[in-house]
Amino acid sequence: MARVLTSAAVITCSHQTGVVTVRASQQVLTAGRQAVLVRSDLDGAKIARCSNDDPSKDLTPCTTTGAPSAGLATNLSVGDEAVLTEEATGTTDSKPPGTWAVHSPGQAVLEAT
Cβ distance 20 to 42 under 8 Å? Predict the structure, then answer.
């Protein structure tokens, strides 16, 4: 079992400097007084402060997340959307392509598989 993500989660890009802006699209399910995140919450989320920026080396920073490719709960959803777990990860729009991953789920109360 893995802890589910909430709006208090800390998610960073693979360059370890970019921080994902986390916003929950639903308020029905909460954990630790924070709204739980669902799949669409991290599809196109903004990333700030990525240091992967050097035009002379053809590098561009992470600015948005791609859809989660892992970490979708199979037994817990809100509406038709799977809840995200601390195992969530995906790509970013940096050049070369980067990834995003969970640093902290934002709560220690609710788990899902």
Answer: yes
Q: List the beta strands (DSSP E) in 4-112.
A: 10-13, 19-20, 30-31, 34-35, 47-48, 65-78, 81-92, 99-104, 111-112
The model scores a pTM over 0.85: yes
∠ at Cα 27 (24, 29), nearest 5°?
100
* 3-state helix vs strand vs coil in the chain, percent to 5: 5, 50, 40
Per-residue model confidence as pLDDT tens digits over 58-75: 999 999 999 999 999 999
Q: What CA–CA distance (Å, rounded) separates 4 from 85?
A: 4
Whether the Cβ atoms of residue 20 and residue 65 lie closer than 8 Å to each other: yes
In the chain, what is the straight-line distance between the N-terminal and C-terminal CA atoms, in Å?
A: 5
- Sequence spans of domains, the chain: 2-107
Q: Which of 59, 57, 81 is nearest to 14 (CA)?
A: 59
